[in-house]
Each structure stands twice: as C-alpha cells, then as structure tokens.
Amino acid sequence: MQTATVREVQHNLARILRRVEAGTEIVIERRRKPVARLLPMDSSEEHPADWFSHAAEVVEVFGGRTVTGTPMEQLVSEARGDR
Fold it and tell me: What is the CATH superfamily name and number for domain 2-41?
C-alpha cells in the first residue's frame, strides 16, 4: 500500500491511476490523515446495467400508477433563478 497527498493526486492523476491499474492500493491523505483509498477494479465487479430488472423493480414499487409531479427541468430552472 502506498500513500499520496491530495495535491499529488490533483497534479498527477494519470500517473497514479496507472499505478492503481497495475494493482497498487493507494491511500490519499489530507494533512497526514487518510481520507480515501484507491483500489484496482476487480473484473468480476464490472457489469453492464440491467435495465430490464430495473424496469421490473419500478413496476413492483409503483404498480400501474403514473408518477406525477414537477418536471426536473422546471425544478432546476427555478433553483437557478436568474443565473
């Protein structure tokens, strides 16, 4: 296990990611305190989104009801105001 500071990660992300891809675990520290850990992905963890089962979950939760409410674009626009 190796360590890197937040600043090192900000300035050398590509280099650090190459080390992680090679199998190195890196602990990111801020002011000498660990705040995060970068681990290589396990190939068994990678899986495509299963939208069919998601659709089944939505039907299970909402049944045939239509969900009504304020459209998201309107909520975002109102939150931004005149910006």
Answer: YefM-like domain (3.40.1620.10)
